[in-house]
Give the backbone structure.
Amino acid sequence: MGTIVKIQALKGFKDILPQEVALWRQLEEKARQVFERFTCEEIRLPILEETELFARSIGEATDIVEKEMYTFVDKKVTMRPEATASLLRAYIEHGLHVVKPVQRLFTIGPMFRHERPQKGRLRQFHQLDVEVLGSQHPRVDAELMAMAATLLDELSIATSLEINSLGCPACRPLYREKLLLFIEGCKDSLCADCRRRSVVNPLRVLDCKVASCRAQVEEAPSLVEHLCAECAEHFAQVRGGLEQLGIAHKVNKFMVRGLDYYCRTTFEFVTGDLGAQAAVGAGGRYDGLIESLGGPKGCPGIGFAMGMERLVLLMQQRQGEKAADPGIDLFIAAMGEMAVARGFALGHELRRLGRSVAMDYEGRSLKSQMKQANKAGARYALIIGDDELAAGRGQLRPMDGEEQRTVELDAAALATCF
Ligand code: HAM
């Protein structure tokens, strides 16, 4: 035999072990419930798409497209780094705008970005993603943020909501000129990244994390102060809608998202409980994007995505423990070959009747089997010995300490006991 090599998971790719899956399921179930209350429908999308889809929607000059995508260069396909582009591709491809004037869709699944892994930042991570397509009404923006806030609230996760407006193709170019002038004036005190960014995407300078850049940026002109009349009115109405729904928020005039497709409303739900990875969820409006991907003319859209790893970390911190183990209905502890054979068939019948049943086939002692029953969180143990078997009976023992009783070894009758 050759040398044994222990292969480990790739850096930034994480196994979700059975004891963690309970929390993941809890999160997914709660998300589905809340999204459906807001009449969102689930859509399931492929993981692999044409590279061009992401380059065109997220933007060629973004970190994601420039350096984080997992691309099969020869095949010109990419593992999706986010869900919005794929969801819009499907919306357009299947003419979903014809089905309903306003589509509310959500999807849940893995995304892939070649980032430097750290707590709450992985290379394969999962998102809950929601998109509302076909309306530019500010109430839609407010409702969407209210939905995200409701989910976080029902998960008992404390965050604060920061919002901003990035304007539209009418007002942003004028602002960009002003910003460029400002950057020109303080270029020497900016980091190398920002000096490079200022050429391709000056807005990104506003959210640089380097302390010296942050200090400079404090003085920079902000987009919210340079919105055109329509964008200013839209933003005011979004804020009014949030107030009407009692959703606390604050304006972060320097919030710039890392994806190029946004216009008008952008938002982030941030937490102080996850170290550097403060954004639990984020999103915004992208009114020109659907049309630019070949969709209906002027069709607007808005959406957000939440990082599930981050939500699970916060749920763990909140609970300080794992989700409650759901346990099983029955553990069959059979002693002797004949009893094991009977228990084997009985267990299968009970599972067919919808009960969860475990059993040990290794011929262990009764004591050891009862230990296993406890560990499995069984509500009952059914003890079958060869003697009882002759009479077609067993002992049903409630695991909570109540007295055991004799029962018939009949699946239908047994199923009524638990
Ligand atoms: P994003 O800001 O790139 O936006 O990601 C949204 C959320 O996904 C983040 O706030 C974070 O919670 C989570 N996330 C992102 N990258 C990672 C990572 N490497 N590891 C763990 N979690 C991560 C988008 O993806 C947009 N598509 C959101 C959107 C939908 N905008 C409109 N519709």
